[in-house]
């Protein structure tokens, strides 16, 4: 097998968006264009059933399905594309953030009526911290939406990069005429799409100054023409390196539900998005073309059958060539595993996987041998840096209804904490454990799993904390002084990292001012 060649044709990305911007629709259309599904609607119906139920136990039942839809692999124009799902609103949790550590690029979808919305901003922050290149798709131009120039300015402001339009909308809503492909100097004429791929009925008109365009599309085209001219003078030209360095984002306009403007996005992904890059481990840099296999667990998902504590560890391949049945070593424990029933995600079917290369994701079913952040190798001891734990924003105290089951509660919470389902804090004072999450659903999932998997009826109680910061200081004496002086607000997480819990941002600010030599971290990196 030619590893460098296989790496070069991999593209691994995630879609980031606010709920309802059109992520599911776009995902489906990308799969459709890549020929991975014949009829759009399969992703949609799954989502509908998931969201129709507010009872999250339904979600539990659906987990088998959501494992399969967490990663979608498709082939398009000689490339293997891995699309990693970032769970949306209802399931929002730390998992969502961590998925972004496993991709090489992100596709940001924006609802043209609403602009850049809060959840997109949260996800953007993670991308920005990692310098992930971003392609932008502005959706729903078949509706009355905001002015494209305004949207472009808003994107630039939030994303902190230059936004370089690759296409430009001609009209909108009822007078949506199409998009002008600036780089290829041609207009794609709008035609409401169907669920299947049109054969070759796409219509193009060449040339910005083509009189046919002015005749046919009149004032809409005149306006777009002026805007494109304005942009050609004012906007910075596209620069591939600036895109890869996350200093520029190519921007597309379209309507996902109408199959319109989607192909351009897919083509750009293949032509411009980065191939899997090197990964930094504590010991050394790992390059994707290296012959030996390495990979990192970025997500652990409990599977359907609680009786078996069955889990799927999602491993992003960092280097080498994975083959079914090969022996792998878990760096943390030195244990050897030999995964035979590895799951791949080609075309959304849970096929058994035979080969995988850097950028691919494999799912390894296991019974708790694999933890979040674990590194798998062919024997070398490695620890990758950069798997983030985010400071929780929601807190609850946890008590056990039956004191005789306190031990089970602790065991359960330790394991769920290691799995990354929730963060568990042990306060320096008192014995009540605290749970921290970034999404409310995490608490419900944990309470349910404590009951079904560990036989513990947990009571979740109000907690006055609203923020947590991990602490460090160059001088250990300073850190000790801080801890001693703030004992009531000190807690330790599952790996015994010390954190300061605050009830308000004002309290945090005061602490920071009083102890300038102590550093407060909103993010802890694994390892
Ligand atoms: P998600 O929550 O981001 O996954 O969003 P969905 O893909 O489920 O889309 C939310 C709603 O917007 C659905 O009712 C879609 O049919 C609709 N939608 C998606 N794309 C478009 C579009 O291009 N135009 C219009 N008018 N509606 C769209």
Automatic annotation (TrEMBL):
It is found in: Cytoplasm. This is Peptide chain release factor 3. GO terms for molecular function: GTP binding; GTPase activity; guanosine tetraphosphate binding; translation release factor activity, codon nonspecific; translation release factor activity, codon specific. The keyword Endoplasmic reticulum does not apply. GTP binds at residues 17-24, 85-89, 139-142. Its main location: cytoplasm. The gene is prfC. It comes from the Bacteria. GO terms for cellular component: cytosol. InterPro entries: EF-G-like_DII, EFG_III/V, G_TR_CS, P-loop_NTPase, PrfC, RF3_C, RF3_dom_3_sf, RF3_GTP-bd. Belongs to the TRAFAC class translation factor GTPase superfamily. Classic translation factor GTPase family. PrfC subfamily. It comes from Verticiella sediminum. Gene3D superfamilies: P-loop containing nucleotide triphosphate hydrolases, Peptide chain release factor 3, domain III. Keywords: Cytoplasm, GTP-binding, Nucleotide-binding, Protein biosynthesis. The keyword Nucleotide-binding applies. One of its GO terms (biological process) is regulation of translational termination. Residues 8-277 form the Tr-type G domain. PROSITE patterns: G_TR_1, G_TR_2. Increases the formation of ribosomal termination complexes and stimulates activities of RF-1 and RF-2. It binds guanine nucleotides and has strong preference for UGA stop codons. It may interact directly with the ribosome. The stimulation of RF-1 and RF-2 is significantly reduced by GTP and GDP, but not by GMP.
